Amino acid sequence: MPTIAKNATCQTVITTFEVTPGTCHDLLDELRSAYDAFVSKQPGFLGAGLHVNDAQTRIANYSQWESREDFQAMLRSDEMRARNRKINDLCKSFTPVMYEVMEVYD
């Protein structure tokens, strides 16, 4: 389960996907499949969440990894490269960005 904490030592990755209402659920199915079958089983994976906006034109994916290298190794794997080609076909664009937590408010 992802944990948001200011002094966390993990790598946080937020990926946004631009989709159409007609492809939103197809992409969600692909992302669920990727997490269930592959991503969640990779070394360093800590947790993730999928979010969809009301208009079903954006999907946001929040994931945490023990290290930047763990995330990059998963992306470079043959399986994830093949999955990302399918994901790319279902959306207008997607951008994974690595972040550091700077502040948390309760």
TrEMBL record:
Question: What is the organism of origin for this protein?
Answer: Actibacterium atlanticum
Q: What is this protein called?
A: ABM domain-containing protein
Please name the InterPro entries in this protein's record.
ABM_dom (IPR007138), Dimeric_a/b-barrel (IPR011008)
Out of the domains of life, which is the source? Bacteria
Which stretches make up the ABM domain?
Answer: 11-102
Sorted alphabetically, which Pfam families does this protein's record hold?
ABM (PF03992)
